[in-house]
Specification:
single chain, alpha+beta, seven-stranded mixed β-sheet, 6 helices, 16 strands, 20% helix, 26% strand, elongated
Amino acid sequence: MTFRTIDIIQITDCHDTGAISGELAAIKVKRRYADRAELLGLNTRLIEVAPAEEFNTIDVGAKFSELATSAVNPARLVLAINAAPPSIAGGTGNNERRNFVLGRLKNGIVFGGTWGGHCLSYVKSEIAELYELLDSNNGSQFRSLEVLPDALLDFKAEKIDGARLRPINVAHEVPAPPRHSHAWTVDNFGNVKLFLTQDDKLRLHGLFKAKAKGPEGKKIAPVTFAFGNRSVEFTPSSNGLLLPDKREFALASLAEKLFCIEIGTNVVSLTSSAKRWDEKGAITDVEQIATLRGEPHKPLGYKPPKIGAPVFFGAA
């Protein structure tokens, strides 16, 4: 099913949020989408800009995944993704960076934007078609305003010149997710949603099954956890992923759900409000670490990690 009325969300590290800038960059981007949609005869129900941490492609990719898996009417949704570090070593004479991509997920979501790092890693298994936008560079410093909105909506409306596009081999050219479990998102409560490798998933679920005690619905098992300091985005090998000192591990209750433990306790929950696709395209739960607090001034039982920081688990 296709929709003439669409929702547009741009996930970007270039947003100028804050008291001084007043979200000026985001407002300019929203108006560009509105103008292009009107020109193409596309009615918009929603146009939003979702901020991401600067240069953090794990943050961009995780937010892309969360919006994509939670979409009720995915064929209505257009997602733009943008992380804007310089991408050509040594610089260029015309402000050039790696070309944008345009594509479609198997559920019908149209998307486009940057694809360096892990912008596409968490939806890789669900990409149905993907193209490099060959004329992405026009000298613009603000390509996510001056290039991406027009090209993305032209692609959505099926009015883009095919000569502008190069098919991309998704299996070989799109990076897989990082090979170590890591902090996937961190919300305003300090709750940390996790991307766990299959080995860590099986390990935690096995520990819960073997060790959890208590009444039904409130069963818990002891576990410890710690975060590393350097994002797995910048540590593709095992270097920098050394096990932290045992004094850095915090005690937690391993539980199926977040709110089944006492206030003031750390919890590693096997579920959260998010879902994600695994490497085979199956929907899987997203685990979470949190401190259950009854008052906002109460401290967390751990230092909130950087998005992308490796996470480690140990025996209590």
